[in-house]
What we know:
The chain is mainly α. It has helices spanning 5-19, 27-39, 52-59, 63-72, 87-101. The protein starts with a helix and ends in a 9-residue tail after the last helix.
Amino acid sequence: KSLSRSQWLDFEAKKLEANKTTAPKSGKEVYEQRCSVCHDAGSYGAPKIGDQKAWGKLKDKNLDVLVQNTINSENHPKRGACNQCSTEEIISAVKYILDQSSPTKDFSLW
């Protein structure tokens, strides 16, 4: 059985609504929804958020390396296990973690 015209229009409207882009999430929101699963407790060898020593070594590599490792590393879930996150959102999450782990520095301008 095929859809009626009104059913088809309803279907198309719902499909458009589902594909609408939303405003980018903040780094904190991405962290809380995805990254915190491992980085809050240090699961699977992930450096804990706030661990200045561990993150100090990582931040010395520079932001580009950290973002690239978050997106494509063999030792990290691809895209931080957030396939729906934009690269901008992943960068914001990395900056958020660095800010929380290096209280005397501001990484928001990186």
